[in-house]
User: Fold this.
Amino acid sequence: MTKRDYYEILGVSRDADEAELKKAYRKMARQYHPDVNPGDNEAEAKFKEISEAYAVLSDPEKRRQYDQFGHAGANGQGFGGFDGGGFGGFDDIFDMFFGGGGRNRRSPRRGSDLQLTINITFEEAAFGVERDVEIPRTEKCHHCDGSGAEPGTRAENCPTCKGSGKTTVIQSTPFGRFQQVKTCASCQGTGKIIKNRCKECGGAGTVRKKRKIHLRIPAGVDTGSRMHLAGEGEAGSLGGPPGDLYVVMDVLPHETFVRKGNDVLVEYPISFVEAALGTEVQVPTLEGKVKLKIPEGTQTGTMFRLKGKGIPRVNGYGKGDQHVKILVVTPTDLTQNQKDLLEEFAKLRGTESLGDKNKGFFEKVRQAFMG
Assistant:
């Protein structure tokens, strides 16, 4: 198979200087490194390809030979034998460019964060609530205190790598000797061998448990609100700190109220007689019913505000308001008497001035429609 051009692989021009080469390599190495893409063979192959390209182009003599002879190299010897970088492998590459990161498996590692989504009612979101939840998570094994070794014993330095977690292989190529550092296969990079594994965790140092967490959900949260509980995530490894737990709220809809920020909207139906003559109604709020005066001549869709009857501002002061939207209901299934009264009303509306005659008529309508 024809090999791709090294400059094309790194996405640089043929006259790119050392800084451009290094910048391009760093960006691509971060993207395709096997630690970032575990189990992805395609990414690993890509990483080896860009590492080989950089190993050649970053060396002035190799680059001169490549520019002159291409992949055949000087005297047809080629540039093969890089295996993930050719000048030190995955670990050396990351040690060189990213400050000693790479696959140092002996370093303490922080545990993973966890996220839990819980359903709460509209009222619980408005007033706050306390709740116990159970979460499955990895915790430090208390039998061995996280060491992985049975109490009374301890892990020993790996005899293969002498505790370093890495082994070194020297490769000879037509262009010199190259050192490749690999993760020790005997200890999987930990530098330690556990002969007497903990009977509780099997040497892992961690166990899987369900843990009950007590939540204090503040008043005013909404769907998408997050609570951050530090240290309640997965256990760290090799003495690393635990991760955090994020609790995400999902507020269930209410049959009466609709939330708009910290305000609450409610629709309240009244009859057309109440709308015409005015009335006083008992409107539901989150804190119980309150009186609301409806002035005469109120139209459907009219909004009234109940100040401070909304939802508390989380981690702040005060509350939102409640907005009452009036819906004027048109009557159906009218009796003949009711129809006669409405026809009389229609005739009266046709006159220029209703005067006192209108008041007596409305009283008849009220009695006919409201009893």
In short: The first helix runs from residue 6 to 10. The domain at 258-370 is CATH 2.60.260.20 (HSP40/DNAj peptide-binding domain). The chain has a mean pLDDT of 83.
